[in-house]
């Protein structure tokens, strides 16, 4: 594909309406006779529900009903978990708690009222008698044999144990020349914190027996199926619409209690029902991310070659499984070797229940944890051997190539880790930085340089390895006027595929970019779909659209060939025409469209109209990679970390729109750096959420960052014809260890090997004054 | 949030008549950035709100070299920041107001409200009252006290005064005007703040039926000012420590230095110790450092907030250095 559109910095089609506030999010949907919901939530992390008194609330103005878990039992299905792992324990997860609550914020009852504030005020009047039970929030304690059990029917708090082993451990363990480092790394819990909180409008029409649901979701099609199952409705009568969705970062790749309850209530009353999540509810009852303890054993040669890596992972799952909860930490195991050819690997992952909100997919979903582990490993080895971290990485990279299989069994599509590393070293002036560092150290100043050379697993994915199918659907329809409609089963929510999909189709059909309109997120409009997550939208969804466009071209070429007296294979689509390469035979695009619809002289076997659907099944994941360099300065007096420079070289395969790629990288870096320096979502030992407001929960803002210097290399993937790999999560995955490595590099003269995130000034100050960082 | 009456008087007298003589049933609404969230959390449960934003005289800001700067209580932080006279003559005030960070808070929040905002103490915000009592005993000394007071913390109050503006206003010798049923009174800003010693006492010297109407800041040409603050999360959190400094240089030495710390005690905390260290001395990094040490020499950190002592020391040091380096 030679191109004018692909690879260009084209402004986003979706921005004018979003920037001007003229589009519609769930809360902008107003329907006649709408009712409102407010949830009564548990103030306890773990307690028996003794009684629920709703009489006072029922008498409040505007209140129509109060439902509890008992009212819904048998009438509304359980919250689904799609992760199908061997031996996985799946506790029942009702939409409203039954008999026991297991985390702070768990919905216990719902108030239905004719006004939003009436519902909220009445919810405050519902009295629940609880008998508190001991709360379990500590992972080490939760897995001990004398721990109280959160789900008594399951026997203990361990939901699953998964092992991944590869390579010759006997050789590693018997090699006396190898050095060993043992280190515990804590990957703290985070809140995904999208700008728009969750929200749902459910509208049941009793006459038609149809249910329409507007939800702030990443997965309208999957949600439709699940809501049909939960409500017991005929799936053909359920329609889910994801209107504008104001960010999600994985947190809306889910089926939530409130969505189920809204559908149930709407069916009870035959009226539309709305629920919009408050920010406090969002921090408390929308899934969280990360939260692992990783105990490492690193076996390495004195020259820096790492020979074996063992890791025992304790993954905090929270109190229940949400849609993919147990699957997330398994991605950590899968990617734990990163981009290094380490001959032996052993990972044991324990998924652990605690009295906290469920963890699930948050931007990166298991892979940032893996990258953090392996990139810290490289730096710890370099430090131990007094080698430059660049040297250790080069020693452990596999040679550039395709289909590289590591000890984990993962097969990387393409790799050239040396190239991105070299590029970022040049971009950052790495050698010069090291000289500056040496000069400053003599003056007692702490400058740190941190590297991260990451690889991620993207474009999710082959259906054989995905919980609910990994294909994607794309439809291209040329309208009778020659305008083009594109339908995608993905559900972008800020990434900008309305733009990149239009670029692909306009390029292929040779029509103006403005003539292409992209729709997604409505299950009655888009025939089938999976959604947007796992950096899959362009690589899988875009490919489906590309193939659908090929089918349109094939049909139009046949029609044009008849008209021009040429062979279909001789024809090209460009500048609104279908013509031979030399232009000697040419017909207008619109004229051929007319032929297809008027259907007066169609060649035999050709059906009228121009609409094609294609479902793309990816043969493999893709494995984007990159190399980042962070430069930090430490304030000797306060312990504050100043991020001075950040250089990111990312290889996400072919780039369709550099501006969209930059946007994804910048946002991802902000979140990844945020984890390293500021963010943590904290429960106390009683299971109370200490970071329940935006004052306590550090959400980084633009002024906290330096300008990011970004660059790319383009190694096209053979997995799809576009050559794109995916970029949605790269920044988050690559940046966290770069920052931590930089801070630890700065503090090197102080002899500290590791400090757990977030690297708050107080911890650094404790180190600066010669104390232990871990007491903070 | 419970239902409430809403009054929006046009005159100060009318507003004062709408306020009762005891705390609780009525609250004064200006920007509402603190009050409304406290109402949502059930921390304030007024039956009546008296909006004072319709009272024209409370929304004026004037400057003259003779009278100095008069800031009406409902002037917003954004209006303060955008004012040419403030920018020219009161750079320290600009620095302090910028600490509000959030554009929404700057646009809605008022100068009067900034001074009268309630403490951020999480025990207070979670319904344990200003003294954080459970069974008559403060939860703070053995609790999560990393953000609590390091000075003036003999108890029973351990919260910190949350105002960004108060330290610099005190350093500049500002006063506030208060209007009540019996007329007007004037207080130095320092006197507006009190450390409560019993349940029910507030942290401001303000009667329930009084309204803070104006802040008056003298014009003192030749005075250099600076504010330095340090936060943990650099986001919407309040600083862990801040220091405001006002001083003059005469013949190469420092004169009339004022050093006031914020976020370290139940009230804004002037430091005569630091001021004595500076007076009549030639400015230097060592001198600033000594003043910082003097400012925290009497600090009595709680179990988890020793770090704040270090930050307060550094904030004082850097505010002094910054003030000295400024022109004017």
Short précis:
With 776 residues, chain A is an alpha+beta fold. Chain A has 20 helices and 28 strands.
User: Could you tell me the strand content of chain A as a percent range?
Assistant: 15-25%
Rg estimate of chain A, integer Å:
27 Å
The level-1 CATH class of the largest domain in chain A: Alpha Beta
Output the number of helix runs of chain B. 13
CATH domain fold name of the domain at 57-116 and 161-217 in chain B: Uridine Diphospho-n-acetylenolpyruvylglucosamine Reductase, domain 3
| Uncertain regions spanning at least 5 consecutive residues of chain A | none
CATH architecture of the domain at 57-116 and 161-217 in chain B: 2-Layer Sandwich
Task: Write down how many β-strands of chain A occur, each being a DSSP E stretch of 2 or more residues.
Answer: 28
At the fourth level of CATH, the homologous superfamily of the largest domain in chain A is Aldehyde oxidase/xanthine dehydrogenase, molybdopterin binding domain
Overall shape of chain A:
globular
Low-confidence stretches of chain B: none
Number of helix segments of chain A? 20
The number of distinct β-strands of chain B equals: 14
Taking the alpha carbons of the first and last residues of chain A, their distance comes to 56 Å
Shape label of chain B: globular
Share of helix of chain B, binned: 25-40%
The average pLDDT value of chain B, as a whole number, equals 95
What do we call the CATH topology of the largest domain in chain A?
A: Aldehyde Oxidoreductase, domain 4
Task: Summarize the largest interface: chains and residue counts.
Answer: A-B, 23 and 20 residues
Gyration radius over CA of chain B: 19 Å
Structure characterization notes:
The complex is a heterodimer of chains A (776) and B (328). By secondary structure, chain A is α+β, with helices and mostly antiparallel strands. Chain A folds into three domains: 152 residues, Aldehyde oxidase/xanthine dehydrogenase, molybdopterin binding domain (Aldehyde Oxidoreductase, domain 4); 192 residues, Alpha-Beta Complex (Aldehyde Oxidoreductase, domain 3), CATH 3.90.1170.50; 239 residues, Aldehyde Oxidoreductase, domain 4. Helix content of chain A is 28%, strand content 25%. In chain A, the strands form seven sheets. A seven-stranded mixed beta sheet of chain A has the order 3-5-1-12-9-10-11. In chain A, helix 10 links the parallel strand 14 and strand 15. In chain A, helix 10 runs parallel beside helix 11. The radius of gyration of chain A is 27 Å and the shape is globular. Chain A starts with 14 loop residues before the first helix and ends in an 8-residue tail after the last helix. Chain B starts with a strand and ends with a helix. A five-stranded antiparallel beta sheet of chain B has the order 4-5-10-8-9. A four-stranded antiparallel beta sheet of chain B has the order 11-12-13-14, sandwiched between helices. The model of chain B has no long low-confidence stretch (mean pLDDT 95). Chain B is α+β, with helices and mostly antiparallel strands and 328 residues long. In chain B, helix 2 links the parallel strand 2 and strand 3. Among the domains of chain B are: 117 residues, 2-Layer Sandwich (Uridine Diphospho-n-acetylenolpyruvylglucosamine Reductase, domain 3); 102 residues, Enolase-like, domain 1 (2-Layer Sandwich). The radius of gyration of chain B is 19 Å and the shape is globular. Chain B contains 13 helices and 14 strands. The chains are: A alpha+beta (776), B alpha+beta (328). At the A-B interface, helix 4 and helix 20 of A face helix 13 of B.
């Amino acid at each position: 594909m030679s191109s004018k559109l692909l690879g260009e910095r084209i402004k986003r089609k979706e921005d004018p309406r979003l920037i001007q506030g003229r589009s519609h999010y769930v809360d902008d949907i107003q329907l006649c006779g709408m009712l409102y919901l407010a949830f009564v939530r548990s103030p306890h992390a773990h307690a028996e529900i003794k009684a629920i008194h709703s009489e006072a609330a029922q008498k409040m103005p505007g209140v129509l009903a109060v439902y509890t878990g008992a009212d819904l039992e048998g009438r509304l299905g359980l919250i689904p978990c799609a992760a199908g792992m061997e031996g996985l324990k799946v506790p029942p997860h009702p939409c409203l708690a039954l008999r026991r609550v297991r985390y702070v914020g768990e919905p216990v009852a719902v108030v239905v009222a004719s006004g939003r504030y009436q519902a909220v005020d009445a919810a405050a009047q519902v009295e629940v008698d609880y008998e508190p039970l001991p709360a379990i929030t500590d992972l080490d304690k939760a897995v001990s044999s004398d721990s109280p059990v959160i789900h008594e029917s399951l026997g203990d708090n361990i939901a699953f144990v998964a092992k991944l082993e590869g390579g010759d451990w006997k050789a590693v363990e018997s090699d006396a020349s190898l050095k060993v480092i043992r280190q515990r790394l804590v990957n703290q819990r985070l809140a995904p914190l999208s700008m728009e909180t969750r929200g749902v409008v459910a509208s049941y029409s009793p006459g038609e027996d149809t249910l329409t649901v507007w939800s702030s979701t990443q997965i309208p099609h999957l949600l439709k199926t699940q809501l049909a199952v939960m409500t017991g409705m005929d799936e053909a009568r359920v329609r889910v619409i994801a209107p504008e969705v104001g960010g999600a970062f994985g947190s809306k790749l889910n089926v939530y209690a409130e969505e189920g309850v809204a559908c149930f209530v709407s069916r009870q009353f035959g009226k539309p029902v709305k629920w919009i999540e408050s920010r406090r509810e969002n921090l408390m009852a929308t899934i969280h991310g990360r939260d692992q303890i990783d105990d490492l054993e690193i076996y390495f040669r004195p020259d820096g070659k790492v020979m074996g890596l063992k890791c025992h992972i304790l993954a905090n799952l929270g109190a229940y499984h949400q849609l993919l909860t147990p699957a997330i930490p398994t991605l950590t195991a899968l990617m734990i070797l990163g981009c290094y050819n380490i001959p032996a690997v052993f990972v044991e992952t324990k998924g652990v229940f605690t009295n906290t909100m469920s963890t699930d997919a948050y931007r990166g979903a298991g892979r940032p944890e893996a990258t953090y582990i392996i990139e810290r490993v490289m730096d710890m080895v370099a430090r131990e051997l007094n080698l430059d971290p660049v040297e250790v990485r080069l020693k452990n990279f596999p040679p550039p190539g395709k289909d590289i299989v590591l000890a984990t069994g993962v097969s990387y599509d393409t790799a050239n880790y040396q190239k991105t590393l070299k590029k970022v070293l040049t971009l950052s002036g790495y050698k010069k930085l090291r000289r500056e560092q040496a000069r400053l150290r003599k003056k007692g100043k702490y400058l740190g340089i941190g590297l991260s050379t990451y690889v991620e697993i993207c474009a999710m994915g082959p259906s054989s390895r995905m919980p609910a199918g990994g294909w994607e659907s794309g439809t291209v329809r040329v309208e009778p006027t020659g305008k083009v409609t594109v339908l995608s089963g993905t559900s972008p929510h800020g990434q900008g595929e309305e733009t990149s999909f239009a670029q692909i189709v306009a390029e292929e059909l040779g029509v103006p970019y403005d003539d292409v309109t992209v729709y997604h997120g409505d299950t009655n409009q888009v025939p089938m779909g999976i959604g947007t997550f796992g950096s899959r939208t362009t690589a899988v969804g875009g490919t489906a659209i590309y193939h659908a466009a090929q089918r349109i071209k094939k049909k139009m070429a046949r029609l044009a060939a008849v008209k021009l007296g040429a062979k279909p294979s001789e024809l090209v689509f460009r500048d609104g025409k279908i013509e031979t390469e030399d232009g000697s035979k040419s017909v207008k695009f619109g004229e051929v469209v007319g032929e297809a619809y008027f259907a007066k002289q169609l060649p035999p076997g050709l059906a009228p109209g121009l609409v094609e659907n294609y479902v793309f099944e990816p043969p493999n994941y893709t494995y984007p990679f990159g190399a980042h360099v962070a430069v930090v300065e430490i304030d000797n007096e306060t312990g504050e970390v100043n991020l001075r420079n950040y250089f990111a070289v990312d290889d996400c395969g072919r780039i369709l729109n550099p501006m969209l790629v930059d946007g994804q990288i910048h946002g991802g870096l902000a979140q990844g750096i945020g984890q390293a320096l500021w963010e943590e979502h904290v429960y106390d030992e009683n299971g109370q959420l200490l970071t329940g407001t935006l004052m306590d929960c550090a959400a980084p803002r633009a002024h906290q960052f330096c300008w990011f210097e970004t660059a790319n290399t383009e190694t096209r993937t053979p997995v799809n014809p576009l050559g794109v790999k995916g970029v949605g999560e790269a920044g988050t995955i690559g940046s966290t260890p770069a920052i931590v490595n930089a801070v630890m590099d700065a503090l090197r003269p102080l002899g500290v090997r590791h400090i757990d995130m977030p690297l708050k000034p107080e911890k650094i100050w404790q180190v600066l004054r010669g104390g232990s960082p871990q007491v903070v | 949030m419970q239902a409430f009456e809403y009054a929006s008087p046009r005159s100060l007298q009318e507003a004062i008549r709408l306020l009762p003589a005891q705390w609780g049933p009525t609250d004064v609404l200006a920007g509402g950035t603190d009050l409304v969230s406290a109402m949502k959390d059930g921390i304030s449960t007024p039956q009546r709100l008296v909006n004072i934003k319709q009272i024209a005289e409370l929304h004026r800001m004037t400057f003259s070299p003779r009278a100095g700067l008069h800031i009406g209580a409902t002037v917003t932080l954004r209006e303060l920041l955008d004012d040419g006279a403030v920018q020219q003559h009161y750079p320290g005030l600009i620095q302090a107001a910028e600490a509000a960070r959030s554009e929404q808070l700057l646009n809605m929040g008022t100068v009067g409200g900034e001074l009268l905002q309630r403490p951020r103490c999480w025990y207070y915000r979670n319904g344990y009252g200003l003294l954080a009592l459970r069974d008559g005993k403060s939860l703070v000394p053995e609790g999560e006290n990393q953000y609590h007071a390091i000075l003036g913390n003999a108890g029973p109050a351990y919260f910190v005064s949350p105002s960004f503006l108060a330290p610099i206003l005190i350093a500049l010798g500002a006063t506030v005007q208060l209007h009540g049923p019996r007329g007007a009174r004037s207080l130095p800003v320092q006197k507006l703040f009190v450390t409560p010693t019993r349940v029910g006492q507030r942290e401001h010297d303000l009667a329930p039926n009084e309204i803070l109407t104006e802040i008056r800041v003298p014009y003192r040409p030749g005075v250099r000012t600076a504010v330095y603050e340090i936060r943990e999360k650099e986001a919407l959190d309040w600083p862990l420590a801040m220091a405001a400094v006002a001083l003059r240089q005469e013949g190469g030495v420092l004169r009339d230095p004022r050093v006031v710390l914020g976020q370290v005690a139940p009230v804004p905390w002037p430091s005569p110790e630091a001021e004595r260290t500076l007076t009549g001395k030639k400015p230097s990094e060592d001198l600033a450092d000594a003043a910082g040490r003097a400012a925290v020499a009497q600090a009595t950190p709680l179990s988890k907030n020793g770090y704040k002592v270090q930050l307060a020391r550094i904030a004082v040091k850097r505010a002094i250095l910054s003030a000295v380096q400024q022109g004017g």
